[in-house]
TrEMBL record:
Protein name: Alkylated DNA repair protein alkB-like protein 8
Record bears the keyword Methyltransferase: yes
Gene3D superfamilies: 2.60.120.1520, Vaccinia Virus protein VP39
PANTHER family xrefs: ALKYLATED DNA REPAIR PROTEIN ALKB HOMOLOG 8 (PTHR13069:SF21)
Entry-linked SUPFAM superfamilies: Clavaminate synthase-like, S-adenosyl-L-methionine-dependent methyltransferases
Record's keyword terms, sorted: Methyltransferase, Transferase
InterPro entries: AlkB_tRNA_MeTrf/Diox, SAM-dependent_MTases_sf
Amino acid sequence: MDFKHPDGHVAAVMLPQRSLLVMSGESRYLWTHGITPRKFDIVQASDEQKVGTVTADIGDLTLNTRGKRTSFTFRKVKKGPCKCSYPSVCDSQCKVTAPSFPDSEREASMLEKKYVHDVYEEIALHFSNTRHSPWPRVVQFIRALPHGAVVADVGCGNGKYLGVSQDVYMEKQGQEYLASGHSCQWAILVGAR
């Protein structure tokens, strides 16, 4: 399971099969958490290491093929106002004012940067890590194209279809808003992998 703190710190915890994880306090309320879909996990190779820990000895790491993972989440519905110790991330304690319409082109551009571009920059790596497997029907479509066909991969994506067929020339355009003259650093970097 991958945990992320609001300050950007990330921690990965290996959960053995049939394990139960009960979160409370900071791990439950302050950190975000989830199981990133991937085919392999990097785990300790030796049995002496405590399960779920990772040491600085990279020679003791190995790839473990991941099987089917299922997560069940049980939560209680709060009756009454929340008084948790994490008001900065608490939905019921955050004082959010309703957005107003922009008064000028400049203000509209600033809003677009804050709520579109900056959000894409923030979620880019996670977004890319969860889009690792090409969709079978798209692969089938690309492989059915004749030798020398040209494909434009336009839209939000990380280039996962670029290597599907060597007989097809694919042009990657990163983010949808690249077409309107904006740039997105992560799309360029991720697409270059």
